Task: inverse folding
């Protein structure tokens, strides 16, 4: 099994088989419109515009599980992404990334790349360990803008925690796309 075996749901309710992305590098991100990390949309869009022709696909999955920072409907989220950040990469249907109702793709990604968010994350770590202690020491996604890098073959390569900006992962993408 790999990431290409999953089908996700687009914002319009249609199915989006990840098998359609076979041969491309995927960056899967849980996103939110009202988060301190929301400006990362700008960096993600820049990566997408610069690297899409070389084989990069970015898939955004809105999630309201962290501080209720993605309260809108799928239509409102699409409008926000377009109007505020001119996002052209796919932003899919709002999902849960943790818990019993988690999108199966995210359950898989979490198991493949459990993450390493810890005290070196500063204020984010302090917030999570204080307000979401049940997430500490687990494979759970800890906050919005966690990114999962998937190779052309569908295998999960690594997880980037929210404090890692799109600009900081550019070298990894360039290596995979070369």
Result:
């Amino acid at each position: 099994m790999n990431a290409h075996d999953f089908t996700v749901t687009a914002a319009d309710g249609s199915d989006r088989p990840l098998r359609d992305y076979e041969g491309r590098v995927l960056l899967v991100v849980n996103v939110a419109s009202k988060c301190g990390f929301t400006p990362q949309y700008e960096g993600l869009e820049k990566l997408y515009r610069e690297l899409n022709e070389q084989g990069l696909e970015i898939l955004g999955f809105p999630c309201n599980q962290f501080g209720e920072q993605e309260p809108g409907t799928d239509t409102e989220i699409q409008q926000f992404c377009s109007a505020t950040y001119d996002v052209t990469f796919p932003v899919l249907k709002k999902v849960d990334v943790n818990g019993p109702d988690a999108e199966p793709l995210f359950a898989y990604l979490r198991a493949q790349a459990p993450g390493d968010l810890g005290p070196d994350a500063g204020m984010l770590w302090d917030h999570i360990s204080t307000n979401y202690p049940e997430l500490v020491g687990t494979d759970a996604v800890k906050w919005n803008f966690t990114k999962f890098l998937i190779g052309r073959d569908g295998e999960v390569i690594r997880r980037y925690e929210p404090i890692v900006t799109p600009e900081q992962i550019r070298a990894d993408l360039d290596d995979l796309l070369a």
Q: What stands out?
A: The radius of gyration is 15 Å. Strands lie at 7-9, 15-17, 25-31, 56-62, 147-150, 156-160.
